[in-house]
Design brief:
Layout: E1 5-9, H1 16-29, E2 37-41, H2 47-53, E3 60-63, H3 80-85, E4 90-93, H4 96-101, H5 106-118, E5 122-127, H6 131-135, H7 139-160, E6 163-166, H8 180-195, H9 199-204, E7 207-210, H10 215-222, E8 229-232, H11 239-249
Parallel strand pairs: 1-2, 1-8, 2-3, 3-4, 4-5, 5-6, 6-7, 7-8
Helix pairs in contact: 1-11, 5-7, 7-8, 10-11
This protein binds phosphoenolpyruvate.
């Protein structure tokens, strides 16, 4: 049985005061959540607030990215080791916004993933197709390529140490959600692809759905056999909505 994971991707939002308020809001309601694992991924400068405020709670925290390099002369970058130092347990790698705006390739993402694992973090690997790719019937080809980037660099052992997030690019921040059937189809495809390497890892690996998940559609999505939780963007910025999604995962 896979424990559902609900992770909030806060992206580049919030002030210091708003972050404190959001962290405290989630903390105040966490007792209602009985089964789901819950984590938040604030922007880098606010990780210390998450580490401090969430201390002693079951809420984990992570970052939205890490460097592909171990350390050194890489101005502006943040290493996996630094994230670990700030109490992170998770790090998102390969988000479509980073693939798009920062030119991240599968090879780069594979290196980030490997460094995260090496430093004891759990990477959340994002995979997903654009609308154009879906319309061209290339969804499976694209998500397979994203997954294989990690399989090729770290092998099945690395994949066993992470979480996969299927995030159709056309559903991110658009208010358009994949139907439960559309999402389940891709999740099942991803799990089968992992099973070709190891049936045991395929059974254990959590595959989250991300893309305009909100309280109104979370239960239906997470009721699907291969959907093991959610990576939540916009709806993670309101404590009440985020907790409602976490509850839907229970
Ligand atoms: C995301 O960017 O990871 C995401 C799922 O965003 P949203 O929920 O806003 O679509």
């Amino acid at each position: 049985m896979r424990q559902p994971l609900i992770a909030g991707n806060w992206k580049m939002n919030g002030s210091k005061a708003e972050t404190v308020e959001l962290l405290n809001g989630i903390k105040a309601g966490i007792d209602q959540i009985t089964t789901s694992e819950v984590a938040v991924c604030p922007p880098f400068p606010f990780l210390y607030l998450a580490e401090d405020i969430l201390q002693g709670t079951p809420i984990g925290h992570g970052a939205q990215d890490c460097s592909r390099e171990e350390n050194g002369a890489f101005t502006g970058q943040v290493s996996a080791a630094m994230l670990k130092d700030f109490g992170c347990t998770y790090v998102i790698v390969g988000h479509s916004e980073r693939r798009l705006f920062n030119g991240e390739t599968d090879a780069i993402i594979g290196r980030k993933y490997a460094l995260a694992v090496e430093h004891g973090l759990t990477p959340i690997l994002c995979v997903g197709e654009t609308l154009e790719e879906r319309e061209q019937g290339k969804t499976e080809e694209v998500v397979a390529r994203h997954l294989d980037g990690v399989l090729e660099s770290g092998g099945i052992d690395a994949l066993a140490k992470g979480v996969i997030a299927y995030e159709p690019v056309w559903a991110i921040g658009t208010g358009v959600t994949a139907t439960p059937e559309q999402a389940q189809e891709v999740h099942a495809f991803l799990r089968e692809r992992v099973a070709k390497k190891s049936a045991e890892v395929a059974q254990g690996v959590r595959i989250l759905y991300g893309g305009s998940m909100k309280p109104a559609n979370a239960s239906e999505l997470m009721a699907q056999a291969d959907i093991d939780g959610g990576l939540i963007g916009g709806a993670a910025l309101k404590a009440g909505d985020f907790l409602a999604i976490c509850k839907a995962g229970d």
